[in-house]
Amino acid sequence: MSDLDLLTQSLARNVKRWRTERGFTLEALAARAGVSRGMLIQIEQARTNPSLGTVVKIGDALGVSITTLLDYEQGPKVRIVPADQAVRLWHTETGSYNRLLAGTEAPGPLEMWDWRLMPGEGSPSDPHPSGTVELVHVLAGDMTLTVDGVEHHVPEGASVSFEADTPHTYANKGEVPVEMVMAVSVPLVR
Question: How many CA atoms lie within 13 A of 153 on its CB side?
């Protein structure tokens, strides 16, 4: 079985599990996540590979991390993720990417990401649920963070935190790749 098949089946099993645990019907989860009922059916039947944005919306609506939705092992309390098993969910042909390094439910979803943005590239994000906070540390290059239409320059070595319940974009307007680590904390669904 390929890595993609494994992720597709894990996503199917975990979306259905968490939807059932939360007591959501397909219609309720579709409305909360802003995705179609048909898409959820395809995901739960492992018949599609949804976009990163769709997986994020479903995770946010369920109140669980992407790590939890893609987890194919119910492991012990200590979980080591080998470098070659970090999940790359977004990439471009020129070399930009993000990798989900680790995540947990403590008490709501908490994720740690590794990002690379090549010169001239960016990655927009829809608003996350109210109370979501993102922390970013720029390891190399100069990152431009736009939050709710306002640009913020975050140079190499600097860190930034912000409320991510509004549209935001990470961009590289410089000449060298931007390397950064990001943590995302999403509040528990009530």
Answer: 5
Structural contact between residues 112 and 181, judged by C-beta atoms closer than 8 angstroms: yes
Contact 142, 178 (CB under 8 A): yes
Residue 143 Cα distances to 147, 179, 183, angstroms? 13, 9, 16
Q: What is the DSSP string of 124-180?
A: EEPPPPTT-EEEEEEEES-EEEEETTEEEEE-TT-EEEEE-SS-EEEE--SSS-EEE
Percent of the chain with pLDDT over 70: 89
The DSSP secondary-structure symbol of 189 reads P
Is the distance from CB of 29 to CB of 40 less than 8 angstroms? yes
**Distance between CA atoms of 152 and 170, rounded to whole angstroms?**
10
pLDDT in tens, 130-159: 888 888 999 999 999 999 899 999 999 888
